[in-house]
Amino acid sequence: MKKTTYSAPVMLTIILIVLAAFASFGGVFYSELYRDNEFIKAVWLGNDIVTLCVVIPIMAGALIFTLRNSLRAQMIWMGTLWYLVYNYIFYMYGAAFNKFFMLYVMIFTLSVYALIIALMKIDKQALAAKIRPDIPVKWISGFMIFFAVFIGGMWIAMSVSYVFTNEIPPAILQTGHTTGVVFATDLSLLVSSLLVGAILLRKKEIWGYLISIISMTKCVLYPFVLVLGGAITYQKTGIWDPFIPAYILLWIGCLSAFGALLRGIDSKQDAVIDELIER
Fold it and tell me: What pLDDT shows up at residue 1?
């Protein structure tokens, strides 16, 4: 693919790298930024550290290899864009209003359009020609469905329980807010993308590979946020997230699925990425 193919989303991504780096750097070092309770402040701190030190470098590296015509890097790059879309929804709607509010809106909006334009411009025929027939789509799609049912089942069960008990779930009370931002975001974006990706992947449709790799990229990155945020929260408040062991187990499954999907794309330009996957 020509470098000019992705000129618009590439420029948007460069802007996003700068904006996200500024937002996360400010979140780590500007102690007066967040106006939430101590529990949520600890969550934001872990999130900002992971975004600054893990996600942004991976996004920048994937963008560089994308410009060198790496198909796998293109998938990872789009996955990091999806991470920003998912992540900054929480900041827009879940963080108490602060001085970075407009920055969160900009990051979310630019990420959405960068991802849409990138998906529109990808050469799906070229990608289809590079997909190996031996990708274990059955177990990968099965894992994705399990992941969706596990996460979605938790939030649905807690939501339904309120209908009968009138007791607001502790996961919402801990945030200090009245809305279920995590429930809504996971059910509308995470669960749906996993299910759609799994169904299409099982049918070996090109959109199944695209959605699955993009979703798994986000799912490989986000457990770092959950585990680090949980550790910081426990240190600062003494509240331990009992789901952290489950997050780690799911991360292992996501990493295996992610690696299998990437290895299933045959690309001569991806020797470096192959080496990283094997490690």
Answer: 45
pTM of full prediction above 0.85 = yes
> Residue with structure tokens 């089942």?
153
Rounded distance, CA 166 to CA 246, Å? 27
CA distance 91 to 98: 10
pLDDT digits over 127-161, tens only? 889 999 999 999 999 999 999 999 999 999 999 99
Amino acid symbol at 132: R
- What's the chain's average pLDDT? 91
Alpha carbon 150 to its chain centroid, in Å, reads: 17
Q: Could you read off the pLDDT of 189-245 as tens digits, one per residue?
A: 999 999 999 999 999 999 999 999 999 999 999 999 999 988 998 888 888 888 889
Task: Write the CB contacts of 34 (distance below 8 Å, at least 6 apart in sequence).
Answer: 27, 40, 41, 44, 95, 96, 98
Other beta carbons within 10 angstroms of residue 27's beta carbon come to: 24
- Whether 230 contacts 238, CB under 8 Å: no
Angle at 217 between CA 4 and CA 134, to 5 degrees: 90
In this structure, what token pair is assigned to residue 153? 């089942």
